[in-house]
Amino acid sequence: MVSTRTVGSYQATLSIGGVLPVKTVRAVITPRPSVLVCGTPFGVKMFSEGALVVGFTDISGPDGAPRNPAKEAGLRLGDRVICIGDTATDVDACDQVGVTCLSAAWQDGVTEALEQRNPGKVFDRVEACGAYLLEQCATK
To answer: Comparing 76 with 136, which gets the higher pLDDT?
Structure first.
């Protein structure tokens, strides 16, 4: 088993009886992209599930040209940003920056630990997580 957090290239060969190769599969694990939530608080307390997008700022790309990764990713003013993580560390990181974290318990044996850290926001199926997100969008 290969950890999904280890960056690199991996190859596995499926064989019958350990002798007759059937298929070889190659997987390339890349660094996990992330978005940093930042800004200056201005004295208004807002109750929102997740961080609320209230503006955009361009940054300089590798070639020096202005870029706006948030807009390029499809974010719009008024969008709410949440995190879907699969570890208690993800929940802690989100708590530190005020971002709502939904917990993906797709792996066996993690549901109980995630429920203790993130009660009511742990999903063992992609469909259940999707239904929760749709329900939240409809009520907000």
So the answer is: 76
